[in-house]
Write a structure and sequence with these properties.
Two copies of one chain form a homodimer. By secondary structure, chain A is of the alpha/beta class. Chain A has two domains: about 170 residues, Rossmann fold (3-Layer(aba) Sandwich); about 180 residues, NAD(P)-binding Rossmann-like Domain (Rossmann fold), CATH 3.40.50.720. Helices cover about 35% and strands about 20% of the residues of chain A. Chain A is built from 13 helices and 19 strands. Chain A has an eight-stranded mixed sheet. In chain A, helix 5 runs antiparallel to helix 11. The longest helix of chain A is centred in the middle third of the chain and has 20 residues. Chain A is globular. The model of chain A has no long low-confidence stretch (mean pLDDT about 95). The interface between A and B is large, with 45 and 45 residues.
Chain lengths: ~375, ~375
């Protein structure tokens, strides 16, 4: 089994799918590791740290010789065209965002696995790349907000008087939101969290934050929330308006899988915030939780700064790659036995995460999106 | 008494010398407050928040009508030329950096007080602007390092394995260094601190950090350290080299008043650091503690990023202004009695902080620097 790690060519993607300390895990599985020169540079893993791998200067050749390709982002169509037929690609393939690439994978008879489709069952926890990368995003978003805010997060008692702590509001208490709560608490802020899933309360409170909610049950499958009704949305607006006007910094993290992010923070709410307040909208990649969010820009409106980073994990590429590579290795350990490929299609982890296989799109929602309902 | 607050015109200075919540304190002293339109904007204190002040569109007129001018940075010579003779200027006047401005203050018979010359006695603690601004700098420097580092500061135990905490080294445990220690600890890093003053040990350890030192007594007056001998410097290099090679992030804060910052981090040390490590050198304004530091730039050397911000408090202008304005008000309360100026030259706070008065440079080291020894 020749496992290849190409350099990510998506702009501003600094992560790498394999870190030096995990090369031995692949070798132990009987794999040979093909590594594109410089692929780890963005994450500050220079080539000399990768021991016992075969280095490739030429990405085309690397793709051509690979049985399995490990990626962060979905490969581009020109990368896919270099792949051997029936080879395997594993990555965060974002099928909703890149239907053309899914078609290319299908047409080239690639067996592709999308890490984000791995079911959230306990046996697959160590492969849960959405969670590992959301952990990075939640932490990084708080650092970003704290850096932008012009105010201290902690309370300070100094000879020049007492500085009150910042009020931080976390919207959405999934993995990213919970890590954001923990980080903002670490920094000493007063933290409130808003979530429409009743299941979130215990976790929010165990981290020492106060929960704001609207008394509806909106828990849906996979740990996500369902979309709200118009009436519920109205109620949400009222409850949030009150909280947001007293907030120095907001981290918003509310996502509905495969859909646009819910617009939770209206322009009117932003206008009610104090001058110098900040919003870090981690849902920017799906359009944002704030009406004013623009992808990868800092928008200033009424003296409130709204930052919409679309790839926070890449901004902390070293540890993000470390965690992501561990997720990949855990998954590969399922696929490879005694140095040979061993795809057990009865294993729900394998069957559910497969995006394309033998010229077909395996994942039903993606297939319906691309090929229509049959 | 007409007390004027002009807009700071130094490039990238966002602070303001008066915040809205302290206007009443000046009014209570019997002062009238003249405020330049927009002076608080950089610190996100918009004009409407300043109540019961007289707004001036024209800075020249504001200067001309002021009995006391409150500044952050030293006024430029063209600002000084607009001042009434014998009026008062109070600010962080940096006489070492701006001898021409000191001459202009002298020649115009301005009574100027430099906040950094206020003696560090307990009665003057509430006026200690060096400390209040260093507190901001220490906090902000850690946020900056955490944002640059590509790694988590805290230890994380996740389904994708354990992420080890970052090793952070704080060089210089003065006010900025201690705040940096506290902030890095808050974020969950393993923190070591280096200081050559034996007095620093207790404070470092009380914040939960480990002290590294070289067994010399280098305590000097005013809470600063003396310069080291060549032999001591050699010893310092050896001790630090060992520590630095295992460090993910360094915050350096070592300053000797009125001198260039000691060069503590050699190029060789930087080259021994791990790829992706970061240095935030808060001594950049005085040349930096690292040989590679460049003012207000991020230098990358051997995959180590060295950031040399020269005005960290301005980057957190809202709270920095809040604290600085409190320092100023405490000082003014000494100068003004029943709405009238009352300079008690027997008070060491007043006599020592006076930089120029009645056509003379009052502060001996500045006078010797500008006029030579007499």
């Amino acid at each position: 089994m020749r496992v290849a790690i190409p350099k990510e060519i998506t702009e501003s993607e600094q992560r790498v799918a394999l870190v030096p300390q995990l090369v031995p895990a692949l070798l132990k599985l009987g794999c040979t590791v093909l590594f594109e020169t410089g692929a780890g540079n963005g994450a500050y893993y220079p080539d000399p740290q990768y021991q016992n791998v075969e280095f490739y200067q030429d990405a085309t050749k690397l793709y051509q010789e690979a049985d399995i390709v490990l990626k962060v982002e979905a490969p581009f169509e020109n990368e896919i065209s270099n792949l051997k037929e029936k080879s395997i690609v594993i990555g965060l393939l974002s099928p909703h965002r890149y239907p053309e690439r899914v078609k290319a994978l299908r047409d080239r008879h690639i067996t592709s696995f999308a890490m984000e489709l791995i079911p959230r069952i306990s046996r697959a926890q160590s492969m849960d790349a959405l969670s590992s990368q959301a952990t990075v995003a939640g932490y990084k978003a708080v650092l970003m907000a704290a850096s932008m805010t012009n105010r201290f997060f902690p309370m300070l008692t100094t000879a020049a008087g007492t500085i009150r702590p910042s009020n931080v509001l976390i919207i959405g208490a999934g993995v990213a939101g919970l890590q954001a709560i923990a980080t903002a608490k670490r920094l000493g802020a007063i933290v409130k969290a808003y979530d429409i899933r009743t299941a979130a309360r215990e976790q929010i409170e165990s981290l020492g934050a106060k929960m704001i909610n609207i008394d509806v049950k909106a828990d849906a499958s996979g740990g996500y929330a369902r979309e709200l009704t118009d009436e519920e949305k109205q109620k949400q607006q009222e409850v949030l308006f009150e909280a947001i006007s007293k907030t120095d910094a907001i981290i918003s993290t509310a996502l509905i899988p495969g859909r646009s992010a819910p617009k939770i923070i209206s322009t009117k709410m932003v206008e009610a915030m104090m001058p110098g307040s900040v919003i870090v909208d981690t849902a920017a990649i799906a359009g944002g939780n704030c009406e004013l969010t623009q992808a990868d820009k800092i928008v200033t409106h009424h003296d409130v700064m709204i930052n919409g980073p679309t790839n926070l994990p890449s901004m902390m590429a070293r540890d993000a790659s470390n965690m992501y590579a561990k997720n990949l290795i855990s998954f590969i350990e399922l696929l490879v036995k005694d140095g040979k490929l061993n795809l057990d299609w009865n294993d729900e982890i394998i069957s559910q995460s497969a995006l394309t296989h033998e010229g077909k799109i395996n994942h039903q929602p993606t297939r319906e999106m691309i090929e229509g309902k049959s």
